[in-house]
């Protein structure tokens, strides 16, 4: 049986933050912030709330959606700190609909696959790429198009950010992280595309406690780690089958 070894934390403890305020200290007005999560699944709840408390404004929010049912990133909209939203889903977020109608938040809707690829390109140092998604629609307006092998493609630019706020199940002091099933969603890609990544995890474990094969996000992409034990983890829409007789 393989033997697990632990590594002395040493200098890697420098990434561990003792509070939300300390973890969010680098934030600044006008920042471009990526936030992991799909709907309310995988939200960095403490960091999201902490951004409002921090008082930064004029943010560009880059996330699949901007919260829902009055929860999650909806708090940023209600606080009026978002200037621009880039994402792939609006849905039933009434706060975002109101902000769009009032012209207080600029909204850029991106096809979900393109959204992910733009972030992946930023993390890989690729400035742009061509995709057939959106050709002939408003998505392609004002963008360069080219034909390859008889098919038209539209050019999409990479999507980088200043910060990524993500939620993990476990992380060690170096930032190696493992997510809980579908709560992983966009988070590893966002971490690679941001200049600084802040990980909110349910539990900080010793170095070496996460098997290398189980590391979903390598710590090289992580700059700040914060342990938060308590989360609401709300359901958006609970759907269950009726019990059989």
Automatic annotation (TrEMBL):
Origin: domain of life: Bacteria
Protein keywords: Transferase
Cited SUPFAM superfamilies: NagB/RpiA/CoA transferase-like
GO-annotated molecular function: CoA-transferase activity
InterPro entries hit by this protein: 3-oxoacid_CoA-transf_A (IPR012792), CoA_trans_fam_I (IPR004165), NagB/RpiA_transferase-like (IPR037171)
Statement: the UniProt record of this protein carries the keyword GTP-binding: no
Identification of the protein by name: Succinyl-CoA 3-ketoacid-coenzyme A transferase subunit A
Source organism of the structure: Sandaracinus amylolyticus
């Amino acid at each position: 049986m393989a033997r697990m070894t632990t590594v002395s934390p040493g200098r890697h403890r420098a990434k561990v933050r003792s509070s939300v305020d300390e973890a969010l200290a680098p934030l600044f007005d006008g920042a471009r912030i990526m936030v992991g999560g799909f709907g309310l699944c995988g939200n960095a709840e403490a960091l999201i709330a902490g951004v409002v408390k921090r008082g930064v404004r004029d943010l560009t929010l880059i996330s699949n959606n901007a919260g829902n049912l009055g929860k999650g990133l909806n708090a940023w909209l209600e606080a009026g700190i978002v200037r621009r939203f880039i994402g792939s889903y609006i849905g039933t977020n009434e706060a975002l609909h109101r902000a769009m109608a009032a012209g207080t938040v600029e909204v850029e809707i991106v096809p979900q696959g393109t959204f992910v690829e733009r972030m992946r390109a930023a993390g890989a140092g690729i400035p742009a790429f061509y995709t057939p998604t959106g050709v002939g629609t408003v998505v392609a307006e004002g963008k360069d198009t080219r034909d390859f092998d008889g098919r038209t493609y539209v050019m999409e630019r990479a999507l980088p950010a200043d910060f990524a706020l993500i939620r993990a199940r476990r992380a060690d002091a170096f930032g190696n992280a493992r997510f809980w099933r579908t709560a992983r969603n966009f988070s590893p890609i966002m971490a690679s595309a941001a200049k600084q990544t802040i990980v909110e995890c349910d539990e900080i474990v010793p170095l070496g406690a996460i098997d290398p094969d189980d590391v979903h996000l390598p710590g090289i992409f992580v700059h700040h780690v914060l342990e938060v034990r308590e989360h609401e983890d709300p359901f958006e829409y609970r759907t269950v089958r009726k019990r059989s007789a």
